[in-house]
């Protein structure tokens, strides 16, 4: 890997402003999912290392919270600037460890950085209240204060952006931070720490704990009385376990969990616009996103035309090593992930679905063929097929036919998940009626790309709670304090 700034690629964790190998001096290998080659051996930290990181964040908390909002904002802005100055190197690190194509990786770097830029400004816009008192001898007022030490556990599919999206509001609010990145993709998190240090963020404010054992580090984070909040992005199953563990110390939590996003195309929709939105929503990161389209519902009258247009659009997808310029579908993260997608498609076909289109995988010598799954289009999907109930997390477009608005609304809402949803229509009455009736935290209307730093990101039902981004995002990292002044 040829970097302009080779200091960004390193294998130590970052605790209390120092680069550390960990108590046991153990390491784990970070692999390129496209080739299986070892990129770097990274320090494998244990529970006692995690406790030291939490203690460092706790010790740094008073000094960081005491800075003025303008001082914190200036440091965060410098961090943002350094990320953008090193965007190309961060892109290459991300693609090499995660697999997504270079263009997508570059977009993720800018997307993650946008949250740091946004919350550098939002730090100045935390407001309290003056409340009318019940009598003239009292004055009532409300202030907001940093919640304290924040711990985060982030996934492998967006190793830069998911961390930035959590750290930015936490640091802006005056909290200190301990991050556990996914063991598959820790290098992007480490690189962010390199730039945070360079930006002048004080020792102990931002800490990275890399480990091959997420349950071990997670247990320390959830049980520590020094941690005031846990922010997690990942599966619903793991999220439930973490919530149970956090109950012992009554921590504040944010949970961004699994999804099962419907993508609904009504017969009055602009089909070209819908195809464009579907291609963005379904195939970004090879379908490995929590807001990725999972269930496609197309009204019967336009089904044939829609399938034909989608098949043609999918011919432009090229699967292979994400570091190659023409590739727009990279590898899945593991062979286990490929096996899951294969199983879902096989189950659907066995139960009557038809494969309409399947692309070829364009791998080079040295690539691992078993880490790739070809973009696939299947139709005739129904609710009895596993692919309608599980997150696919792969480049498979699964289409069902519907007849009425009432029917498709019931199907779309028939899931325990409620993160993202999408629908296409030209009927303005339906826009409001249907949008309000969908049981999801995010609704894309005639739009397939819905995430940005100015909008609240998060789900309902078993997709979690809390919001990231927007003016609401900083609230999850603050406590409300009511103060009553008497004797006036």
From TrEMBL:
Coiled-coil region: none
GO biological process, one term: gamma-aminobutyric acid catabolic process
UniProt superkingdom: Bacteria
UniProt domain Aldehyde dehydrogenase: residue ranges: 19-482
InterPro entries: Ald_DH/histidinol_DH (IPR016161), Ald_DH_C (IPR016163), Ald_DH_CS_CYS (IPR016160), Ald_DH_CS_GLU (IPR029510), Ald_DH_N (IPR016162), Aldehyde_DH_dom (IPR015590), Aldehyde_DH_Superfamily (IPR050740), Succ_semiAld_DH (IPR010102)
Active site (UniProt): 256
Enzyme nomenclature, EC number: 1.2.1.16, 1.2.1.20, 1.2.1.79
Record's keyword terms, sorted: Oxidoreductase
The keyword Mitochondrion appears for this protein: no
MF term (GO), any: glutarate-semialdehyde dehydrogenase (NADP+) activity
Record PANTHER family: SUCCINATE-SEMIALDEHYDE DEHYDROGENASE, MITOCHONDRIAL (PTHR43353:SF5)
NCBIfam families linked to this entry: SSADH
Family affiliation: Belongs to the aldehyde dehydrogenase family.
Protein's UniProt name: Succinate-semialdehyde dehydrogenase/glutarate-semialdehyde dehydrogenase
Record organism: Zhongshania antarctica
């Amino acid at each position: 890997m040829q970097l302009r700034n080779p200091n960004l690629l390193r294998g130590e964790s970052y605790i209390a402003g120092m680069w550390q190998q960990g108590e046991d001096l153990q390491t784990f290998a970070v692999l390129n999912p496209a080739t299986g080659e070892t990129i770097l051996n990274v320090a494998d930290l244990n529970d006692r290392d995690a406790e030291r990181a939490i203690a460092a964040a706790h010790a740094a908390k008073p000094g960081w919270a005491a800075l003025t909002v303008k001082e914190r904002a200036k440091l965060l802005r410098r961090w943002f600037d350094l990320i953008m100055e090193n965007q190309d190197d961060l892109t290459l690190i991300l693609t090499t460890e995660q697999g997504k194509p270079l263009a997508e990786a570059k977009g993720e770097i800018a997307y993650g950085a946008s949250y740091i830029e946004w919350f550098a400004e939002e730090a100045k816009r935390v407001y309290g209240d003056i409340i009318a008192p019940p009598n003239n001898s009292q004055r009532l007022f409300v202030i907001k204060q940093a919640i304290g030490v924040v711990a985060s556990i982030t996934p492998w599919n967006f190793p830069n952006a998911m961390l930035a999206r959590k750290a930015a509001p936490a640091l802006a609010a005056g909290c200190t931070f301990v991050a556990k990145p996914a063991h598959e993709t820790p290098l992007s998190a480490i690189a962010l720490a390199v730039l945070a240090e360079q930006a002048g963020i004080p020792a102990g404010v931002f800490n990275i704990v890399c480990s091959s054992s997420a349950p071990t580090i997670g247990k320390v984070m959830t049980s520590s009385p020094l941690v005031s909040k846990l922010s997690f992005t990942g599966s619903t199953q793991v999220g439930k376990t973490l919530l149970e563990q956090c109950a012992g110390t009554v921590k504040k939590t944010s949970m961004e969990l699994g999804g099962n996003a419907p993508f609904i195309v009504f017969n009055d929709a602009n089909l070209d616009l819908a195809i464009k939105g579907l291609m963005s929503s379904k195939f970004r990161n090879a379908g490995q996103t929590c807001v990725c389209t999972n269930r496609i519902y197309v009204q019967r009258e336009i089904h044939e035309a829609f399938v034909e247009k989608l098949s043609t659009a999918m011919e432009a997808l090229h699967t292979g090593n994400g570091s190659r310029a023409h590739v727009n579908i990279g590898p899945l993260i593991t062979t286990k992930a490929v096996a899951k997608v294969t199983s879902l498609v096989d189950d659907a076909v066995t139960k009557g679905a038809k494969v309409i289109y399947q692309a070829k995988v364009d791998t080079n010598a040295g690539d691992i063929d078993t880490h790739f799954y070809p973009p696939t289009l299947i139709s005739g999907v129904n609710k009895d097929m596993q692919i309608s109930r599980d997150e696919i997390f792969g480049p498979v477009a699964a289409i069902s036919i519907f007849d009425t608005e009432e029917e498709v609304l019931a199907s779309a809402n028939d899931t325990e998940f409620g993160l993202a949803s999408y629908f296409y229509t030209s009927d303005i009455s339906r826009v409001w009626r249907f949008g309000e009736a969908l049981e999801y935290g995010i609704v894309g209307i005639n739009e397939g790309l819905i995430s940005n730093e100015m909008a609240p990101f998060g789900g309902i039902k078993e997709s979690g709670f809390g919001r990231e981004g927007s003016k609401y995002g900083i609230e999850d990292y603050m406590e409300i304090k009511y103060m009553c002044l008497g004797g006036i």
